[in-house]
């Protein structure tokens, strides 16, 4: 049985936690402040913990409040999805597809896919959320997303299937003033003494591990100076003279004036985008998306050359 009173209290808690102020939260919720304060006190009494430290400057989460905030946010997202599904069922719409994607896939792959699906299923509702690669499989297993686009390879678990959508040759990004920058191709072993800016393992463990394995196969373990979350951050650190970076060769088009991207002499391919889905959940729109991408019906959108940083992801 759903406790709707508790649901409302959690919704109010989330508003105060995000606004860090009872007055602003009340305005956002369209209610006056005293009832909001009273309802939060009721929630604190029910949970037997203090959730906020009040002061004249606002309301800060206590340790207990901060501990439950992630779960409340996830619960709120699930409620919104439930509300959307019910509304669409009443309106007779044909389906909902929730996609989690790294930002580079949001730029290059998703626009054409969504356009294709909306043309085939005009009443389809597509919801997109940005994720890191490391979040893809848990999000699929928990049903938070129907499809995931991320840097994924290998065995992802008994209920997860995937297809590699994009593989690229590995290249190296260097400051234009670097001693190797004028070479047409660079041998990986010649980078053994360099400081590296590398994708964080917390963001994409498979991609990180493949880069480390590639370096070790060339006879060295990379000296990592910075771990970052996006390829745009890699390029930014290289621009600042903070090391070199192994990156997909396509970044050559997006490199800045003081950064060059050179191919490696070794032919090393890395998966930069894969699509994954759970076989334990039935969603006809997932199968439609898989079929469209597998059949080559979706043309990847090429980012236009710009002076700014390349797409993250």
Explain this structure to me?
The chain is of the alpha/beta class and 313 residues long. The chain folds into 2 domains: 4-88, Winged helix-like DNA-binding domain superfamily/Winged helix DNA-binding domain (Arc Repressor Mutant, subunit A, Orthogonal Bundle), CATH 1.10.10; 95-313, D-Maltodextrin-Binding Protein, domain 2. It is 40% helix and 23% strand. The chain has helices spanning 4-19, 22-29, 33-47, 63-91, 103-108, 110-120, 136-141, 205-217, 231-239, 284-294; strands at 52-55, 58-61, 95-101, 124-130, 147-150, 160-175, 195-199, 223-228, 245-248, 259-263, 269-278. Strands 3, 4, 5, 6, 9, 10 and 11 form a 7-stranded mixed β-sheet that branches. A two-stranded antiparallel sheet has the order 1-2. The protein has a two-stranded parallel sheet with strand order 7-8. α1 packs across α2. The longest helix has 29 residues, at 63-91. The two termini are 41 Å apart.
Seen as an oligomer or otherwise, the chain set is single chain
Mean pLDDT, as a whole number?
84
Taking pLDDT < 50 over at least 5 consecutive residues as the criterion, the unreliable ranges are: 301-312
| Residue fraction in strands | 15-25%
Q: Helical amount among residues, as a percent range? A: 25-40%
Biggest pleated sheet:
7 strands, mixed
**For this structure, what is the CATH class of the largest domain?**
Alpha Beta
Domain tally: 2
């Amino acid at each position: 049985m759903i406790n709707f009173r508790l649901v409302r209290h959690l919704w109010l808690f989330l508003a105060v936690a995000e606004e860090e102020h009872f007055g602003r939260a009340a305005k956002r919720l369209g209610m006056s402040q005293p009832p909001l304060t009273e309802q939060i006190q009721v929630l604190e009494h029910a949970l037997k913990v203090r959730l906020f430290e009040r002061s004249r400057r606002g309301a800060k989460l206590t340790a207990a409040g901060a501990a439950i905030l992630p779960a409340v946010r996830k619960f709120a997202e699930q409620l919104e999805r439930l509300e959307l599904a019910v509304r669409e069922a009443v309106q007779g719409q044909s389906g909902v597809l929730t996609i989690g994607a790294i930002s580079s896939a949001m730029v290059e792959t998703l626009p054409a896919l969504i356009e294709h699906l909306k043309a085939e299923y005009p009443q389809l509702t597509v919801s997109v959320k940005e994720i890191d690669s490391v979040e893809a499989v848990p999000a699929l297993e928990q049903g938070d997303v129907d499809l995931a686009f991320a840097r994924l390879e290998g065995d992802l678990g008994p209920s997860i299937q995937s297809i590699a959508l994009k593989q690229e040759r590995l290249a190296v990004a260097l400051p234009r003033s670097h001693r190797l920058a004028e070479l047409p191709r660079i041998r990986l072993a010649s980078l053994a003494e360099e400081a590296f800016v590398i994708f964080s393992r917390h963001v994409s463990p498979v991609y990180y591990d493949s880069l480390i394995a590639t370096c070790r196969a060339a006879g060295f373990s990379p000296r990592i100076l910075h771990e970052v979350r996006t390829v745009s951050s890699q390029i930014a650190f290289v621009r600042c003279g903070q090391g070199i970076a192994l990156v997909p060769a396509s970044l050559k088009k997006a490199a800045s004036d003081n950064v060059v991207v050179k191919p490696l002499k070794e032919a090393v391919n890395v998966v930069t985008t894969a699509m994954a889905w759970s076989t334990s959940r039935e969603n006809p729109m997932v199968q439609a998306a898989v079929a469209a991408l597998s059949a080559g019906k979706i043309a990847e959108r090429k980012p236009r050359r710009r002076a700014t940083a390349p797409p993250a992801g």
